[in-house]
Amino acid sequence: MELAGPARRGAVRELRLHLVTWNVGTASPPPDVTSLLQLDSLGPTMDMYVIGLQEVNSRITNFLSDLAFDDPWSIFFMTVLSPLGYIKLSSVRMQGLLLLIFVKHVHLPFIRDIHTHYTRTGLYGYWGNKGGVTVRMSLYGHTVCFMNCHLPAHMENTEQRLDDFEKILEMQFEGENVPSTLDHDVLFWFGDLNFRIADYGIHFVRESINNKRYNLLWEKDQLNMAKKKEAFLQDFIEGPLQFKPTYKFDLYSDVYDTREQKSLFWFNEKKRKPAWTDRILWRVKNLCRHASKEGEFSEEEQTISVTLNNYISHMSYGISDHKPVTGTFGLELKPLLSDPLVTLHPEGEWSAEHDVLLSYSAVPEFPSSAWDWIGLFKVTFRHVNDYVTYAWVEDDEISFNKDSKQVYMSAAEIPDMGGEFLLCYYSNNLQSIVGISQPFQIQPNRTLIEKDLTQEENSWMQKPDNLESHDEF
Predict the structure, then answer these.
(1) How far is 195 from 319, CA to CA, in rounded Å?
(2) What is the separation of C-alpha 385 from the centre of its chain, rounded to a whole number of angstroms?
(3) DSSP helix/strand/coil, 214
(4) pLDDT at 173 (0 to 100)
(5) 378 backbone dihedrals φ, ψ, rounded to 5°
(6) CA distance 76 to 30
(7) Which of 148, 153, 244, 246 is surrounded by the most beta carbons within 10 Å?
(8) Lowest mean pLDDT among 222-226, 284-288, 303-307
(9) DSSP 3-state helix, strand, coil percentages of the chain (rounded to 5)?
């Protein structure tokens, strides 16, 4: 695995982003997500995965366990993606809402100012069963925000859904100079938005779906109707709904809602009308600002653009009554950051037989701290705390000059079995990894291996004697 060099300022770069929204209905992860994450795709690999889940199991015993440890869904996606060179960059959870972001290692030094937030809208804002969870960041100098929402259910609650989303949009991130949600260069809005198909009866809706005449239903989709009327929605873009409505299905099937629903006094409820509840939209600030201008944007203005490459549902997944929806995007941007804040590399050959050295250098404007540290990670590391060992930058520094500084790590901390590793510099002030080395090999501890081989040979030499003495009886 090779890490790319620094981004060139001014050169357009395309990043591939794969976004998932899925109401998992309190279920456990499925056996396989290859098709969901397009891991079998013949095209270029993704640079970033953004995974928004709703209705993750949040019963009190599960939720308390998940507060102490990673929840099963986070562990599941880390297990799938970390061997492929992705790290969990950030996550945020509010009861059943979970947002996970994974990126390739190469991008880590160019992702900064990561903040998370959650907004409760259930029970007049006191309960988190409904609402939104948000992660924002600076990506190569451009501000990007991801918002995973679960809005109120039922046909008649359109206004409540719109009111709740407006409230979520008004949230403010903590920290200085962090833009408001709508002031980000790009904003992705997705989740179980719960908008329904109005007016038409269930038989017309199902017949249109069976004949794949989805366009007959678009004009009565509540979100499409709201986008024409509500000013705050008009800048949001969505791809064409060329897939079957994703709700409501019988479990482990692609058959719409056949079960008789029992309501409070045992009256039978109507079967649920299919609906596109699960959606992915986006908003580009430049497009909003310059929409009224005639002609093309100038080169100065076209610093970031979003292209939707694929917008589909995945019918093969049946663990809940919703089908997952994915959007694959191309983000074309001109990097505003050309070099990492810190560059670092190992010195000489590394082995657990002796103390080892590493060198690093930082740009003049880097805001270093006594709490900065350098971690040693396996190349398949899952998240920033998944280090093998670490050294405090100031405490373990042994020499420096105007160009670089040296830090040592004790032989006792180096893995005896060796393997392929990375070094990462973590900034306490920026709360993120700001430098990452190329992968390198650590040599196995020969002394320890020879000792193990000797013990193994001795045990084998003793075995025949034991067998012979056993046979005598």
Answers:
(1) 21
(2) 16
(3) coil
(4) 86
(5) -65, 155
(6) 9
(7) 148
(8) 284-288
(9) 25, 35, 40
Question: Which helix (H) or strand (E) segment is 18 a member of?
Answer: strand 13-23
Q: List phi, psi (to 5°) of 186.
A: -135, 135
- The residue whose two tokens read 């994915």 is 326
pLDDT confidence band for 262 (50 / 70 / 90)? low
Structural tokens at position 450: 């020879």
Side-chain-side CA neighbours of 145 within 13 Å: the count stands at 29
Cα separation, 70 vs 323, in Å, equals 24
Q: Look-up: residue for tokens 């690093």?
A: 360
Helix 158-169 / helix 222-229 crossing angle, nearest 10 deg: 60
Residue with tokens 């045990």: 459
| CA neighbor of 337 nearest in space, from 43, 2, 10, 86 | 10
Rounded Cα gap, residues 91 and 97, in angstroms: 11
- Contacts with 302 (C-beta within 8 Å, 6 or more apart), sequence order: 286
Is the pLDDT score of 299 beyond 50? no
Measure the CA–CA gap between 91 and 125, rounded to whole angstroms: 22
For residues 427 and 341, the answer to whether their CB atoms sit within 8 Å is yes
DSSP string, 70-122: --HHHHHHHHHHGGGTEEEEEEEEETTEEEEEEEEGGGGGGEEEEEEEEEEEE
Q: What is the H or E stretch that residue 453 is in?
A: helix 446-471
Q: What is the CA radius of gyration of the chain?
A: 27
Q: Which tokens sit at 188?
A: 């992705």
Q: State the virtual CA torsion across 284, 290, 292, 293 in degrees, nearest 10.
A: -140
More confident residue, 280 or 59: 280
CA pair distance 182, 287, nearest whole angstrom: 12
Q: What is the number of alpha carbons within 13 Å of residue 470 lying toward its C-beta? A: 6
For residue 163, the surrounding DSSP H or E stretch is helix 158-169
**Phi then psi for 326, rounded to 5 degrees?**
-130, 150
End-to-end CA distance of the chain: 59
pLDDT digits (tens, 9 = 90+) for 13-39: 999 999 999 999 999 999 999 999 999
DSSP three-state, residue 410: coil
pTM listed for this prediction: 0.89
Span 195-253, pLDDT tens digits: 999 999 999 999 999 999 999 999 999 999 999 999 999 999 999 999 999 999 999 99
Q: What is the mean pLDDT of the chain?
A: 87
pLDDT in tens, 361-414: 999 999 999 999 999 999 999 999 999 999 999 888 887 777 799 999 999 999
Lookup: tokens for 267: 């009256």
- Tokens standing for residue 97: 């809402």
Q: What is the pLDDT of residue 266?
A: 46
Contact residues for 428 (Cβ-Cβ < 8 A; gap 6+): 369, 371, 372, 373
